[in-house]
């Protein structure tokens, strides 16, 4: 598994290769208000960036939330699509995910909870994020739910199977 330092350096290199305003170590250093030698050491894996450096470089690269800087390309596309949705569509997506399964909902609500903690979730979405968090708690199976089926509104017991021709 790739270390965070290597992932950060890789993402910084990708941005430097695709952004003319940040195509050199000097430009990145000036935009982030850090030393060029520090940028060089980070890119060559000789130094791990401090949290302050990560935040400064992320902001210099136009990334609002420094945690987003380490997302893979597919995760970034998903996040961009999420932000392009209207509030009602986001709520519908969260509802669908809650209905489809706890593992998906749990992971997404953890991400959204982190984003909400970072105050990057727009205010109109916070109720939907909160509801999704509560749904994930309702869908979490436990040992006492054996033989029950998870639903968006809790659990229900499965009806026993009847033998054909059994009297009522």
UniProtKB/TrEMBL annotation:
HTH cro/C1-type domain sequence ranges: 24-69
Domain of life: Bacteria
Span of the signal peptide: none
Disordered as annotated region, ranges: 123-168
CDD domains for this protein: HTH_XRE
GO MF terms, alphabetically ordered: DNA binding
Compositional bias of kind Basic residues: 155-168
Pfam families to which the protein is assigned, alphabetical: HTH_3
Name recorded for this polypeptide: Transcriptional regulator, y4mF family
Source species: Hydrogenophaga intermedia
């Amino acid at each position: 598994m790739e270390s965070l330092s290597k992932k950060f350096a890789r993402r910084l290199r990708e941005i430097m290769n695709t952004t003319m305003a940040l195509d050199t170590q000097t430009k990145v250093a000036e935009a982030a208000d850090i030393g060029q030698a520090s940028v060089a050491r980070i890119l060559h894996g000789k130094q791990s960036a401090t949290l302050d450096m990560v935040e400064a470089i992320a902001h210099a690269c136009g990334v609002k939330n420094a945690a987003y800087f380490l997302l893979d390309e597919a995760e970034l596309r998903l996040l961009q699509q999420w932000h392009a949705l209207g509030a009602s569509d986001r709520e519908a997506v969260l509802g669908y995910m809650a209905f489809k399964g706890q593992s998906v909902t749990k992971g997404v609500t953890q991400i959204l909870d982190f984003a909400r903690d970072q105050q990057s979730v727009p205010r109109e979405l916070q109720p939907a994020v909160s509801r999704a968090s509560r749904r994930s708690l309702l869908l979490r199976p436990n040992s006492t739910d054996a033989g029950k089926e998870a639903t968006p509104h809790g659990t229900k017991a499965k009806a026993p199977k009847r033998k054909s021709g059994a009297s009522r």
